[in-house]
Amino acid sequence: MAMASSLSRRRTLMIFAFAISLSLHLQDSVGNGIGIGIGIGIECEKLGHERCSFAVSSGGKRCVLEKSMKRSGEEAYTCRTSEIEADRVKDHIETDRCIKACGLDRKSLGISSDSLLESRFTQKLCSPHCYQCCPNVIDLYFNLAAGEGVFLPKLCEVQGVNARRGMSELRSSGIVAPGPVNSVQFANIAPSLPPN
């Protein structure tokens, strides 16, 4: 009887330890921006500057990092809710894996399509590790490219040669991205890229 009681206590302790471990892992993942924050009610204004860029609020608006100067001359960073809506993404803090794979920087200020003109950046953005695994990032840059009249999958096809020339060729060729993109299926627009 004592042995059965001892086994029962051990089993209970193991289950309890596992539950605590899992809870701490999930909290750490969400708290450090390593995982997706599902259902945690992200408010951009409450995010620190180390988690702001490429995050999406619970309302589906993208968070942007802004820099200002205090009266003392010291730089201050603030996370704000932008007017840019994310398609089908809410309550999301981008993973470190995607930040690295896509060649992004958590200290990015604002959101701009200028980076699409840099060949190193487009190579990383169009890499299979980013393009196929980071739909939040691809959604953002798909829409930024569309705002410039460029279809991101086509840009990814020509980026190997020269992104700047590719953007110019795409603009002058009449290949223009469709209007607002709300139903893009990323699996269907993957560019044909040579394997790494």
UniProtKB/TrEMBL annotation:
Residues 1-31 form the signal peptide. It comes from the Eukaryota. InterPro entries: PAR1. Keywords: Signal. This is PAR1 protein.
